[in-house]
Input
Amino acid sequence: MSAIPFLNAEYFEVKKNGVSPFQNMVAYLGGSAFQTVVDNPVTAYRQLVQQYAKDLSGKTVDPAIARAEANAVFKANPVAASMSGLGPRLVGVGFKRIPKFGFLLGISYFMDEHGNVGYVAATGASILSAPFINPIRMIEKQQRAYFKQTGKEKAIREILRESAAKNYRPLFRGTIPLMGHSLASATTGLVGQPQLQRYIKSKLDGYGFGAVAGLIASAAVSPIYILMTNPLSRLEVIMQTSSIQGKSISLVDALKEVARDSKEFGLRGVFRGQGIGIAKAIISLTMFHEGRIFLTEQFKSYNERKGYTYQVAA
Output
């Protein structure tokens, strides 16, 4: 048996849940791609609200002014702003999600032959996948970092050229906050939301509202998820939107900046983009899981038609 999971014949065998590990991975990736396209405008807007916490002179501004700045950018370039960063995010469905979902589902199948995703798998996947994910997130944020100055997204080729001049080290800025962000995302979005959705669906099915269980579960989980991740997201934005050619911002410096923001503007400073983040999380979680579930059901139907069933090991 190969040490590499996707080279094992078992990777393509149907498990007790009605799909193979390969089909399960494809369903996760498909759901992620669907979510990425739908939530990109909200993702872009949230980054700008957090990024414009400082004006061009470096002075921290009121959250209301930051929102006004972000609104001005979107009004001036609605399509470009909404689609900014979508290219690397879609590429990231492969480069980011394959490592994350690979570790997540791999650990899950290692611990439970039916691949039930739990908190241990979520923790392992968050830590192990961060170095693979971070460069894509850095490029995505750099693309829209200079909208206010130029009115257009920065070319990926230019970002890579600037990074290459520093041996690509800038692409790993913000990796530590990302690990925490990824852990919160995995435990609430990939583990907690499906568990809550199943519970809510069981309660609503008798009333004919089972179809909205995913939306209700996402709405219930999202405030918890955003409360955990919003400060970490701020740290990522601070560390990843500074000039690649200039001096990098360390984690300690980013924490100091958030602390100054809190001192001047209170919780409004710490939780810039909180409301937008909750809206984004509801959209993202719902779209991801609905896409994943749809593809999983399609694979189950295909397996049933072809007579591919779970075989109990002898």
Q: What stands out?
A: The two ends are 17 Å apart (CA to CA). Residues 147 and 153 are 6 Å apart (CA to CA).
